Amino acid sequence: MKNDSFEISKGTDWVLVGIYLVLVVTGIASIFATTYRDENIITGFLSFRTDYSRQLLYFLISVVLAVFILLTDSKFFTATSNIFYVFGLILLILVFPFHTDVKGTKSIIRFSGFQLQPAELCKVFVNLALAKYLSSLDLNFKKLRSQLIAASLVLVPAILTIFQSETGLALVYFSFFLVMYREGLPSAILVIVFSLTVLVVMTLLIDQNPLTIILTLAAIGFIFAARRQIKRDRSVLVLVIAIWVVSVGIQRFAVPYFFNSVLKPYQVQRIYATVGKDFQVDAASMSEEDIKKMEDKKKAGNYNVKQSKIAIGSGGFWGKGLMKGTQTRYDFVPEQRTDFIFCTIGEGFGFAGSIILLGLYLFMLFRIISLAERQRSSFSRTYAYGVASVFFFHVFINIGMTIGIIPVIGITLPFMSYGGTSLITFSVLLFILIRLDADRQMVIR
Predict the structure, then answer these.
(1) CB contact set of 328 (below 8 Å; sequence gap of 6+)
(2) Do 124 and 73 sit in the same domain of this protein?
(3) Are residues 351 and 388 in the same domain?
(4) What pTM does this model have?
(5) Rg (the chain; Cα; Å)
(6) Is pLDDT of 124 > 90?
(7) Residue 245 belongs to what domain range?
(8) Which runs of consecutive H residues, i.e. helices, occur in 324-419?
(9) Mean pLDDT over residues 407-427, rounded?
């Protein structure tokens, strides 16, 4: 008896599946190239003790989950979105009493030889919950209340993640604001966010007093240019003065407080290094242990990026070949199997290989956006844009880290970096989208 609900091939976007397989296989090959140490290859892959064999195991688990997802009714994801979100928050809370410290992070739970990072997995749950909320029939997203609820769905897990010393992962959650913009978030909010970002960067680059003078002159100049409009409407003058007061307050008080009291010294150091300035720390306000930790982080961060650039540059145009790169083969690049996996491609396959990999990611993103635009369901469309936003953020930040244009904040490269939770999370994210797209003729709210 034929049952259409169990036909995986019906409506499945095999183009995305193909891209997924190519990226995962390339990732396993890259991990193998950097961690293989003359053991028997077959034994190494079957032992599940080496990094490349564990990544293969995580891939097999991902395949099982992908098949399960493709056999699942699409309505299951809308019906359980909020349940999964609550489950994700519970996991994040359980991290605090049951976490294991791993390289300075407190976001990992270990059990039976495996480790789970709920902050990674929660990206799936947040995307589902946000899609569910934004596709509500009675939602008016122009209202401030609706915007605050949507923002809270994203910010609550982000804040919990920050408290687990995972600032990089927490920043990923802000990619969901691109989804909100697509679904009607006023562009003025994005303009404000962009302006605040520029103001923060200017605060880092320019001393306080000169920047205050610049902001004041800019406000006076705008008032002079808009003097006719101000004569007709005094509220314009009030708005300009309010913006000036807020801007000066941010650059003189808010930014210094955030950098001195919220961020850790080594994180501030990385941000300053990215904009080309040295961070002068007040040693009197820090313990010897914190000073040592900060210096170690500074040396490690500078060393990582330096070796990463050397590895990518040494690959030339065509690369040295798989397993022939000296920088990545002999552990000159720390974390080369996780955060700096792109170095293996750059050194082994050169500029040509790097461009092909970037092109593959770009094609995947355009394909996901194409799938998003052909959805009849607002839930599926919103979810698809969430997937595209998360992937874009990860690819852009990770590769930016390896070439030194973005601070090293510990973000993995999708499907490539070593890590079970990361690979499974990205796989689940993608295959839920593929499942929703396969049922796009159904209107799912």
Answers:
(1) 33, 34, 311, 336, 343, 344, 347, 348
(2) yes
(3) yes
(4) 0.81
(5) 24
(6) yes
(7) 192-262
(8) 326-329, 342-373, 378-402
(9) 88
